[in-house]
Amino acid sequence: MQESGYFDKYSPISGVWDEMYGADTNVRDHYRKVIEYISGESADDLNKKEELAKRLFMSQGITFTVYNSGEGIEKIFPFDIIPRIITADEWAFVERGIKQRLTALNLFLKDVYHNQFIIKDGIVPIDIIYSCPHFLREMYQLQVPYDIYVHISGIDIIRDYDGTFYVLEDNLRTPSGVSYMLENREITKRLFPDLLPQCGVRSVTEYPTILYKNLLALSPRQISNPTIVLLSPGIYNSAYFEHTTLARLMGVELVEGRDLVVNNHKVYMKTTTGLQQVDVIYRRVDDEYLDPLVFNPGSMLGVAGIMGAYRKGNVAIVNAIGTGVADDKAVYVYVPEMIRYYLNEEPILKNVPTHQLGNADERDHVFQNINKMVIKKTNGSGGYGMLMGHAATEQEIEEYKLEIMKDPRNFIGQPTISLSSAPCYMQGELQPRRIDLRPYALYGPDGIEIVPGGLTRVALKEGSLVVNSSQGGGSKDTWVLA
Amino acid sequence: MLSRVAASFYWLSRYIERSDGMLRMLKINYASSQDTIQEFTWAPVIRIFAGQGEEETERLDNNTRAVLKYMVTGKDNPNSILNIITLSRENARGVQEHIPKDLWQCLNEYYHTVKDPKIEKALQREDPIGVLDILIKQVMLYYGTAEITMERGEGRSFMNIGKYLERAIQSVDILDTKFGSVSDNPDLLTDTSYWKHLLLSLGGYELYLKTYREGFEASNILEQVVLNNDFPRSVIYSVNNIQRYFDRLKNNSNADDFRELSFQIGRLQSRIKYSSVRSIEQDGLHQYLTQIRKELYGIGNALNAHYFANS
């Protein structure tokens, strides 16, 4: 196959799994059509596409605001125009793995808030659970509709140097980014006319419909038109764009805490014609801010009394409260065991080997090999508070060790995974950058559904392994082929 | 509809209407300043739209470019186009899922257009009319899009109430200020270009020419701006529309709130409807306009108390 300039010059990083090039630097089959298309475009064409993408994001207000010296500066979440492509087989494998994992995690949540067999049987140590700040006693013995706790999850998946898929973390609280999955696709349709159908890319547009169907099914009142709302912390939240997008796509009301009031253990929203009862809440407010009477008393984001209404079963809350105990990084270590324990199956998707630093032996091992390790806080997120051993200075390592020794349970160590790379269009040429994948799984009364796609995040800085948007990461459209 | 959402609709719309009035006012006054041999005063415009203290007004008064900067892109002027469009957009952002996507994009582009540093630069260095026209076009795009895409429901009613309330207040303020200057300086009474510019800034010049044959008369201008129901910026036209859109909010579950506001709007409507130029002049124009303004504010406050209070 004749390849034009961009691909001749593309050189994958050695020792890294490249999504486009195989080990013998042959293009993988599923990238051929895209390469053909892009090779036919001049650098000028591609620059124009990049410009168009930026303009579309900006004019549609798909931005987040960075506050700088009292002035809001709107930025778009950096978007790379070259799609990331996943084959049907790869996807089928990931999909099965996620369904298995979520099923087990959900059974774990039910167990941990009811009989606690897994603790009694000694599979998961009791102190790991009770020391987790997201284990909420308020949820103990509480019945949730259909026994579903995690209705929406965004499990982060990475590939190692040999292409093996690993689960990096299970995001089971209020995972964000799904609107970027949807918007990236809309933008790509504009950038590459006709290319999606030619390549046989599966659609992701069903996501809001499935989510809405699941929310509807949770209504405690058996009425034809239950009130479903999306509870947002408000316009200053970094994911606010996503909240409005989802509310718009589902046609549900977007509310803030101040729009709701609880009366006689029922939740109402304040309307111009009086109070209207709310049946289902898709909340994007974290547990601790949800009810000032039960959790953080200073929170202005939640609704006083909502926990009481939830306990009475008068309102459904999605995701359930207290799911954080299952995505604590110290509990993550036990997920493969959970799969074996609850499902009697071998895990399909692997965990990244993880050392719990509360355990002295493992801690010693991690400290001795610290240059090859990533150390994370068990309840951190957004890439904050991490130590990347290979990139840290002696002094940073020593300071971090002292921090760990204050409360070792709050840290885990993982060997540095060499994330796979994919071609990105940068400064007029294609360059490999590290990526991960966050597919979004929806768990409803009919089972788990995952739209074929997800958010591919990109570490835009050369050599960087950190893809979080808060750390300078970007994203790509994710194509799953039929 | 959520009370907060209703309030946002109302405010986003008031701010847009205000920006429209300001831009037209600035455009005509700028044109007028190019036509004046003696020093042109911006003081009335600053008083109407920026509500500044005398000191600030004096500082800016005769410096056309400084006034334009202050009124359009001034960050420290809470009522600059930049700041009110930012507020309008913040309100829209909070109710985005209630607004057609087209309309949101319109408003968003208006915002990005005002924010573009090129606008400020062009206002200082190039032809300000060209710049103001770019912005006026943004408002018109917004109004066209709203007309075509907005669902004919509660949200649109609150938007239109906001729009016409703001418009009525503007027309009252402009009349009051302009006629106030006349009583300070009676020479203006016979100054043709003074009245012409007043009408132009309200977009009522051509209608005036067609309606009144005997040249510029203060009493005719008064009649058109207060009482002419064919003039889209007249006080009566605006108040009739407030009444019309408010009527659509009638609902069994808010009968008491509705009745109270309906009474206030009806009273104001009658006050204007049963006025004549002669009766206004007898009452004293300034007293008359002050009373109308007070009632318009009263309607705004009542909306807040009865419809938006829960927000």
Characterization of this structure:
The complex is a heterodimer of chains A (482) and B (311). With 482 residues, chain A is an alpha+beta fold. Helices cover 31% and strands 24% of the residues of chain A. In chain A, strand 21 and strand 22 form a beta hairpin. Chain B is globular and about 60 Å long. Chain B has 311 residues and is an all-alpha fold. Chains A and B meet through helix 10, strand 8 and strand 10 of A and helix 1 and helix 6 of B.
Can you give me a brief rundown of this structure?
By secondary structure, chain A is of the alpha+beta class. Chain A has helices spanning 5-9, 32-39, 43-59, 88-112, 117-120, 126-130, 178-191, 195-199, 207-217, 240-250, 287-290, 306-311, 329-332, 335-343, 360-368, 394-406, and strands at 63-68, 71-76, 79-86, 152-154, 156-159, 165-169, 228-231, 253-255, 260-263, 266-271, 274-277, 280-283, 316-318, 350-351, 355-356, 373-377, 387-388, 411-415, 421-426, 429-438, 440-444, 447-450, 455-459, 473-480.
- Count of β-strands of chain B: 0
- The residue ranges of chain A in which pLDDT falls below 50 over 5 or more consecutive positions are none
Number of domains of chain B: 2
Query: Taking strands numbered 1, 2, ... along the chain, how are they ordered across the largest sheet of chain A?
Result: 3-24-23-20-19
The average pLDDT of chain B is 91
Give me the strand/helix succession of chain B: HHHHHHHHHHHHHHHH
Beta-strand content bin of chain A:
15-25%
Summarize the amount of helix of chain B as a percent range: over 70%
With helices defined by DSSP (H or I, 4 residues minimum), what is the helix count of chain B?
16
Tertiary shape of chain A:
globular
Helix count from the secondary structure assignment of chain A: 16
- The percent range for strand residues of chain B is under 5%
What would you call the quaternary organization?
Answer: heterodimer
- Derived structural class of chain B: mainly alpha
- Work out the number of β strands of chain A: 24
Largest interface, with Cβ-Cβ < 8 Å? A-B, 24 and 26 residues
**Cα distance spanning the termini of chain A:** 23 Å
Largest beta sheet of chain B, briefly? none
Domain DUF403 (chain B): 1-308
Protein name (chain B): DUF403 domain-containing protein
